[in-house]
Write a structure and sequence with these properties.
Shape: globular
Radius of gyration: 16 Å
CATH topology: Rossmann fold
Distance between the termini: 17 Å
Strand content: 15-25%
Largest sheet: 6 strands, parallel
Order of helices and strands: HEHEHEHEEEHEEHEEEE
């Protein structure tokens, strides 16, 4: 899938991005109803994802090939569970709105708000993180920016044109009689999996 930049990490200012901001990021993300897991390896991330799929009794999953490459044995594991997995761009467009779970990568987190920053140049990336009722996003645990100012400094270095999203917790609205409702305009559950090793493939 096309991305705004393939070198986001090169734009990270060392003094304002790192694991030292992870605990604050996790606390603030959980304060807005996100679920946050930090693991050492992608094998651990894969195990968590499989447990989530089992618990949700999901039957259909869409994922980016950045996270689930064609050579991954993840598809076979899901097939054995009776779960369909779609990673081709055309399949994502067809099945995202009827999938139970979407799995995609995000570029970094923001400690100040508990948000994650998504490079959404490819429409399939955006479909995966907005249409399924459960959104799982994978990031490197060291890619946490200190604050919004740092986030925009990073974006300014890589952005020319395209689409960037800040995702903060599951979808929520209270515009009808000021009653908070979760999951009306997007996923009702956001699960963030932060991986220590420098690899996001499962």
């Amino acid at each position: 899938m096309k991305k705004i930049s393939n070198s986001w990490k090169n734009a990270f200012p060392a003094e304002n991005v790192g694991t030292q901001y992870f605990d604050e990021f996790k606390t603030r993300a959980e304060n807005v109803a996100a679920i946050v897991h930090r693991v050492k390896t992608t094998a651990e991330a894969k195990a968590i994802i499989i447990d989530i799929i089992k618990d949700a009794k999901a039957k259909k999953v869409v994922a980016t090939q950045e996270i689930v490459p064609p050579a991954s044995n993840f598809k076979a594991a899901l097939h054995d569970m009776g779960v369909e997995l779609f990673t081709d761009q055309s399949d994502i467009r067809t099945h995202a709105d009827t999938s139970d779970i979407g799995i995609a990568g995000v570029e970094f987190g923001i400690a100040e708000t508990g948000s994650v920053c998504e490079d959404g140049l490819a429409i399939e990336q955006r479909l995966i993180t907005t249409l399924p009722s459960t959104s799982i996003v994978i990031m490197h645990s060291g890619n946490v920016a200190r604050n919004i100012t740092t986030a925009f400094e990073i974006i300014a270095q890589v952005f020319n044109q395209g689409y960037i999203s800040f995702i903060t917790g599951p979808s929520r609205t209270s515009d009808i009689e000021r009653v908070l409702t979760i999951g009306v305009h997007g996923p009702s559950k956001l699960i963030i999996i932060a991986v220590d090793e420098d690899n996001r493939e499962v």
